[in-house]
Amino acid sequence: MQRNSFFQKVWRMAMRINIDCHGCYRKLRKILFTMQVNKELEAHSIEEQYCRLTVCGKFKPFDLVIKISEKLNRRVEILELQEFSGNQEVINHPHHVTG
Q: CA-CA distance, 89 to 81, in Å (whole number)?
């Protein structure tokens, strides 16, 4: 698999992050907004009550986990990873990875 083709795929990834205070929530929101401005992410959803983050876009999943983990200084756990091909077919990746 070529590196460029990996980056061109559209991914949907659900992650668990311990968001225990409003400051952590604001910091995470700021990180995600910066990534959206830089065209790394197309959309994101933060479920503060369940400590769950869902992101969609053209990115390298494990690089994104490492980036969020380092900037937020929190443990990030991938719950679900889906790849969307060109014809909107969903390919599930049942990996359970901690970054």
A: 14
| H/E element, 43 | strand 43-47
What distance, in Å, lies between the first and last C-alpha atoms of the chain? Answer: 23
Three-state SS for 46-66 is EEHHHCEEEEEECCCHHHHHH
* DSSP for residue 11: E
Only one residue has tokens 């795929």, namely 9
Tell me what pLDDT residue 55 has: 95
Average pLDDT for residues 10-24, to the nearest whole number?
A: 92
Which carries the bigger pLDDT value, residue 8 or residue 20? 20
pTM: 0.76
DSSP string, 56-92: EESS-HHHHHHHHHHHHTS-EEEEEEEEE-TTS-EEE
